[in-house]
């Protein structure tokens, strides 16, 4: 079964997960956050090249 979720809601969930992780393990989350930042930069570059659409929803696939 697949589920469509608004991207803004999905982003909010990810932000909350990162915030919770920072509270629990403040020293070790910095590398993860940096990795997310780099990943966002790469996505931005792909978007400029036209590889990523402006979809308002993300599909969650369940096995």
A few lines on this structure:
The chain has helices at 7-24, 29-48, and strands at 2-6, 57-61. By secondary structure, it is an alpha+beta fold. The longest helix has 20 residues, at 29-48.
Q: Any overview of this molecule?
A:
There is one protein chain. The protein has 63 residues and is an alpha+beta fold. It has helices at residues 7-24, 29-48; strands at 2-6, 57-61. The chain contains two helices and two strands; from the N terminus they run βααβ. The termini are close together. The model is unreliable at 33-52 (pLDDT under 50).
* SSE string: EHHE
SS summary, helix count: 2
Tell me the radius of gyration. 14 Å
| Low-pLDDT segments | 33-52
- State the assembly state of the protein chains: single chain
Biggest sheet strand line-up: 1-2
Strand content: 15-25%
Tell me roughly what share of residues is in helical segments. 55-70%
Summing up helix and strand content along with how strands pair, one would put the structural category as alpha+beta
Number of strands: 2
Topology:
Blueprint: E1 2-6, H1 7-24, H2 29-48, E2 57-61
Antiparallel strand pairs: 1-2
Key features of this structure:
single chain, 63 residues, alpha+beta, two-stranded antiparallel sheet, 60% helix, elongated
């Amino acid at each position: 079964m697949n589920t469509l979720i608004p991207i803004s809601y999905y982003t909010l969930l990810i932000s909350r997960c990162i915030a919770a992780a920072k509270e629990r393990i403040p020293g070790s989350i910095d590398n993860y956050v940096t990795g997310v930042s780099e990943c966002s930069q790469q996505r931005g570059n792909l978007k400029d090249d036209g590889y990523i659409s402006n979809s308002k929803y993300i599909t969650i696939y369940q096995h």
